[in-house]
């Protein structure tokens, strides 16, 4: 039987979300508009929470694009809920819950390959440091060294008090 170890509790996740919002603001202070591109489903919830915090500290307009990927595919198969062209010449923040190998985020980056961007940034709650792809997080709630057979699970609940990140 495997044990579940709490890495971050709900309060710590909230603190890290606020910190990431401030880091994104500092990184893009001169921008009037930002585009968040979030990997469905947990990345989308996380992006929504960052945007909520950004709205408290910034007047920047923020668009949110949901990216739905076929993570089992051997090639990029992605759908977006909005036209990626709205990111043209803007700062894009690609968001997911966990950065493990980097494959999912590399696919997320691929969605924007034909769109000229001002810059691309990556935000994750947990960066596991097992990157197989040349993908690095610019903003991470926690950088964590784990062994490969361990699994990290991030839970975003409708009740934020039940949020948590766990090592399984």
Automatic annotation (TrEMBL):
Task: Output the Gene Ontology terms for molecular function.
Answer: glycosyltransferase activity
Q: What are the record keywords, sorted?
A: Glycosyltransferase, Transferase
InterPro entries found in the cross-reference section: PRTase-like (IPR029057), PRTase_dom (IPR000836), PyrR_bifunctional (IPR050137)
| Span of domain Phosphoribosyltransferase | 7-154
Q: Does the keyword Methyltransferase apply?
A: no
PANTHER family the UniProt entry points to:
BIFUNCTIONAL PROTEIN PYRR
Name of the protein in question:
Phosphoribosyltransferase family protein
Q: What's the source species for this entry?
A: Albibacterium profundi
Species lineage, top-down? Answer: Bacteria, Pseudomonadati, Bacteroidota, Sphingobacteriia, Sphingobacteriales
